[in-house]
């Protein structure tokens, strides 16, 4: 989540940094990495509810509460790429049926409201980018990059035959766990651990 108070002075400083930093070519996620560098040590921590990773629902059930979620982060595969099966299975691990169902329920409500208010044109545009009504998945490469095939797409190569550990990640349980890619972030660039004070200047 990113909240800030825009101003001409802030814009000028950001624009100057953007035009003078030599780090731009190194950014794997340019927008996020740029903001992380520009606002380095100027952040405030918020509870998990403000960036509730969908996988936390089953990885950390002891802290997750459905009714406390403020902003749900659909990491890894995106719910709009594939419909939730009748068995409730969704997501690359098959455990995201509930959170993906929330998205589809909101989408259906949004679609009804738009069509009722003469917004059929925008509904038709958005429909191009969501799974078909019959549940079939689009073969568009961009959709595969955010859908159920996201892990294979992000890794860019299949693991060698007979190799149970994916070549693109360290074997679980080896070395420092904080140096390894976090669950749900494999194939999506490095995880940046917070290094700020947690306090913003007044």
TrEMBL record:
<dbReference type="InterPro" id="IPR002495">
    <property type="entry name" value="Glyco_trans_8"/>
</dbReference>
<protein>
    <submittedName>
        <fullName>Uncharacterized protein</fullName>
    </submittedName>
</protein>
<dbReference type="InterPro" id="IPR050587">
    <property type="entry name" value="GNT1/Glycosyltrans_8"/>
</dbReference>
<dbReference type="Pfam" id="PF01501">
    <property type="entry name" value="Glyco_transf_8"/>
</dbReference>
<feature type="region of interest" description="Disordered">
    <location>
        <begin position="153"/>
        <end position="202"/>
    </location>
</feature>
<dbReference type="InterPro" id="IPR029044">
    <property type="entry name" value="Nucleotide-diphossugar_trans"/>
</dbReference>
<dbReference type="GO" id="GO:0016757">
    <property type="term" value="F:glycosyltransferase activity"/>
</dbReference>
<feature type="compositionally biased region" description="Polar residues">
    <location>
        <begin position="162"/>
        <end position="171"/>
    </location>
</feature>
């Amino acid at each position: 989540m990113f909240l800030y108070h825009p101003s001409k002075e802030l814009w000028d400083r950001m624009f100057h940094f953007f035009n003078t930093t030599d780090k731009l070519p190194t950014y794997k996620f340019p927008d996020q990495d740029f903001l992380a560098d520009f606002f380095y040590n100027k952040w405030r921590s918020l509870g998990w509810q403000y960036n509730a990773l969908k996988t936390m629902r089953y990885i950390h059930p002891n802290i997750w509460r459905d009714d406390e979620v403020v902003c749900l982060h659909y990491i890894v595969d995106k719910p709009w790429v594939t419909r939730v099966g009748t068995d409730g299975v969704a997501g690359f691990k098959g455990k995201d049926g509930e959170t993906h169902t929330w998205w589809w329920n909101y989408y259906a409500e949004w679609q009804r409201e738009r069509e009722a208010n003469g917004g059929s044109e925008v509904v038709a545009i958005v429909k191009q980018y969501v799974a078909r009504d019959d549940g079939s998945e689009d073969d568009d490469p961009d959709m595969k990059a955010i859908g159920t095939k996201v892990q294979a797409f992000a890794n860019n190569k299949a693991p060698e035959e007979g190799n149970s550990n994916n070549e693109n990640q360290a074997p679980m349980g080896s070395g420092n766990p904080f140096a390894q890619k976090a669950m749900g972030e494999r194939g999506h660039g490095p995880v940046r651990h917070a290094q700020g004070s947690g306090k913003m200047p007044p």
